[in-house]
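Morning!

This is the sequence you dropped in the shared folder:
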Amino acid sequence: MSLLEVKGLKTYFTIENEVIPAVDGVSFSIDEGEIVALVGESGSGKSITAMSIMGLVPKPGKVMEGEIIFNNENLLHKKEKEMCKIRGNEVSMVYQNPMSSLNPMIPIGNQVAEALIIHQKISKYEAKKEAIKMMELVGIPDASSRYKDYPSQFSGGMRQRIMIAMAIVCQPKILIADEPTTALDVTIQAEILELLKSLIKEYKLSILLITHDLGVVAEMADRVCVMYCGKIMEDTTKANLFRNPLNPYTRRLIKCIPRADDKADILYTIGGNVPHPSDFPKGCRFSTRCEEVIERCKGETPPLIAVGEKHQVRCWLYHGEEE
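The structure's back. Tokens below.
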């Protein structure tokens, strides 16, 4: 049985009487110890999916339909008081911008220890000891003396390490990592990814990795869900994704990756832009940018169908090839 199962999730925003479907019928699951990557361009609905799982959708957003099953319970039926006991304790999140997520007025160590005091009900002294251990584990040098330092006294990479320490200090079952390396240079990015991989082994974490970087996917993921305009376009293993991408959107994302043996003067880009959620096209949402579009794509939304083993795709080109 899956550790986390998202079924038919719909998260809409109502702005000036206009309903905007940011997440529109998303379904996927995460097994114990599995790393599932949620991939797509900015505006695809990846972060709103994560916020829906955490119960942190900002107003005027609201989860309209679906189920989020964790530990055999639907999180959407939980009251806020119950979610507070789960959030940061059993399901935790690393946000993409540590400088805006950390409180600039509170020492780093206190922010790491806070979750322990709230969820584990231990003394401030014990929480401090555990927080220092966690800071050391994520690679903060001289953690005991830096416990009282403020976020502004840390580099971007060190702040991201602190965010990871805060997220895993209570040893959650699931870690949601929302673009954990976006603002970091390549060297620091590699260090953060290695840190995450070591923590997965240490704590047997399951991870929902949200990213637009297919290099990170190749490095980290077991399974990949490609998302576009609020819908899952393809769901498959990492090996299948790179060896046999099926959805035209997935193929074009992969084509955007620079290759050392590519002699082209201009890097490939997908034509057009991700449409605004208030202006999604009728039918397949990628139809306005797809080079393989057929007439049916413009009028009917394709279902997500199984094509081969552990491979689902949303595209009319494969309709009738279900196994």
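Headline: The chain has one domain: 4-90+172-318.

More detail when I'm at my desk.
O.
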